[in-house]
Amino acid sequence: MNNLMRWQPAGVSNWPWFGRLNDLRDEIDRLFDLPLAEMARTPSILSGWTPALDVYENKDNLVVRAELPGMKREDIEVTIHDDSLSISGERKMEQKAKDTEVYRAERFFGRFLRTVTLPSPVAVEKVKAQYVDGILTITLPKTEEAKPKQITVETA
Amino acid sequence: MSATMQRETRKEVEPNRQQEFVTPEVNIFETPEGYVLEAEMPGVNKSGLEITLEGNEITITGRRTTEHLPGEVIMSESHHAGFRRVFELDPMIDTAKVTARMEQGVLTLTLPKSERVKPRRISVD
Question: B8-66+79-116 in CATH: which number?
Answer without folding.
Answer: 2.60.40.790
